[in-house]
């Protein structure tokens, strides 16, 4: 009995197609291993005492969950020794993490949010890991944060693990988006959805409606029209709304059945450019969404073309079904 195409087979066959030397493939395998380890910790939850607050804060000023720190450590421990990375960066670490001297360094940079949506972890709602891989600039032996300041178009790989009813790995290396489901018995991610495409139209929008009074006019207009549905002047259909407060779960739903996700700039804190972080949330998710035929924008510019200025920089995010995102962009232009 064939267990199905494993993610290892998939990336090795992709390596053959693009003529890689195996370094990139080995790096991806280390990332997949860390996500399987995180899945195990997330699944056990209270059984092993990993829920609840770590009584510490990250650079974002957000209280860290124990699993935020455990997941971050797992990502570091699985990727520190392989010799494929020059450095790492994470939502949970203020500055970059250099590969210690006793290990060889490689030519890639790994950026990640080890446990996105962790405010949900204590109430057993889906969370995920988001990762992005960049090339370390040529000739740079000891990268600094400056070497990470590359636009999303420079990503060589983007992906997420979704710790939901099943654990899934969804990734792209620029040749389409593929999804793999973890077979807990075998311990391998098995290819379950090939070349995923986001429907161009949708009747489902995702936004945290409690921020409504702070939104900018184009977003106010778009959401009001969705709420009015067929009874309004602008739309010929009614809409449904979803908000899981876990970006990985929202993006996966949109990849699977379409939708539009908005975490726009709001004037709750005018100094903040948005809530979501460019390097390890918006950029990797934008690469995945674009590779699946969707659109990802701040409302004013393509997210993947933003020139980063900081590891933890925030941006407004409007992504998903092409025709809906383009409508919101048009409202920003008016
Ligand atoms: P709010 C999780 O903390 C996160 O970064 C995303 O995963 C999610 O989409 C968003 O924030 C939820 O934000 O303000 O609704 O709690």
Provide the fold topology.
Elements: H1 7-18, H2 23-44, E1 53-57, E2 63-65, H3 66-79, E3 85-90, E4 97-98, E5 108-116, E6 127-135, E7 157-163, E8 167-172, E9 177-183, E10 188-193, E11 204-206, H4 217-228, E12 240-241, H5 247-257, E13 260-263, E14 276-277, H6 278-291, E15 295-297, E16 314-315, E17 317-320, H7 322-333
Parallel strand pairs: 3-5, 11-12, 11-13
Antiparallel strand pairs: 1-2, 3-4, 5-6, 6-7, 7-8, 8-9, 9-10, 13-17, 14-16, 15-17
Helix pairs in contact: 1-2, 2-3, 4-7
Bound molecules: 6-O-phosphono-alpha-D-fructofuranose.
Short key terms for the protein model shown above:
single chain, 334 residues, alpha+beta, Fructose-1,6-Bisphosphatase, Chain A, domain 1, D-Maltodextrin-Binding Protein, domain 2, 2 domains, eight-stranded mixed sheet, five-stranded mixed sheet, 7 helices, 29% helix, 24% strand, globular, binds 6-O-phosphono-alpha-D-fructofuranose
What coarse outline follows from CA principal-axis ratios? globular
Topology pattern, helix = H, strand = E: HHEEHEEEEEEEEEHEHEEHEEEH
> What is the count of distinct domains?
2
Helix content bin: 25-40%
Portion of residues in beta strands equals 15-25%
**Chain-averaged pLDDT:** 96
**Rg over alpha carbons:** 20 Å
CATH topology of the largest domain: the name is Fructose-1,6-Bisphosphatase, Chain A, domain 1
Biggest sheet overview: 8 strands, mixed
Describe the strand arrangement of the main beta sheet, using strand numbers: 4-3-5-6-7-8-9-10
Compute the number of strand runs: 17
**First-last Cα distance:** 58 Å
Number of helices: 7
Q: Architecture of the largest domain, CATH level 2?
A: 2-Layer Sandwich
Derived from helix and strand composition plus strand pairing, the structural class reads: alpha+beta
Low-confidence runs = none
């Amino acid at each position: 009995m064939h267990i199905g195409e494993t993610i290892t087979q998939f990336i090795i066959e992709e390596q053959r197609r693009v003529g890689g030397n195996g370094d990139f493939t080995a790096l991806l395998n280390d990332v997949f291993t860390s996500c399987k380890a995180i899945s195990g910790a997330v699944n056990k939850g209270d059984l092993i005492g990993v829920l609840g607050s770590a009584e510490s804060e990250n650079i974002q000023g957000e209280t860290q969950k124990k699993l935020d720190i455990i997941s971050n450590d797992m990502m570091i421990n699985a990727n520190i020794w392989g010799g494929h990375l020059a450095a790492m960066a994470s939502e949970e670490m203020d500055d970059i993490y250099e590969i210690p001297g006793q290990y060889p360094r490689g030519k890639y940079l790994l950026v990640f949010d080890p446990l996105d949506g962790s405010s949900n972890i204590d109430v057993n709602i889906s969370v995920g890991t988001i990762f992005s891989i960049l090339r370390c600039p040529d000739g740079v032996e000891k990268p600094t944060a400056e070497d990470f300041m590359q636009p999303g178009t420079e990503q060589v790989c983007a992906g997420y693990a979704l710790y939901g009813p099943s654990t899934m790995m969804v990734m792209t290396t620029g040749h389409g988006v593929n999804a793999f489901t973890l077979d807990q018995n075998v311990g391998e991610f098995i290819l379950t959805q090939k070349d995923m495409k986001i429907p161009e139209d949708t009747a489902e929008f995702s936004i945290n409606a409690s921020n409504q009074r702070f939104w900018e006019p184009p977003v106010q207009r778009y959401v009001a029209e969705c709420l009015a549905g067929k009874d309004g002047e602008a739309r010929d259909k009614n809409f449904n709304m979803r908000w899981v407060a876990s970006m990985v779960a929202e993006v996966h739903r949109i990849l699977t059945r379409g939708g539009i996700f908005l975490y726009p700039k709001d004037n709750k804190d005018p100094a903040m450019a948005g809530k979501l972080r460019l390097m390890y949330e918006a950029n990797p998710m934008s690469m995945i969404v674009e590779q699946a035929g969707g659109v990802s924008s701040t409302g004013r510019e393509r997210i993947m073309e933003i020139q980063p200025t900081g590891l933890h920089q925030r941006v407004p995010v409007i992504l998903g079904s092409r025709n809906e995102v383009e409508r919101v962009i048009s409202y920003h232009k008016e």
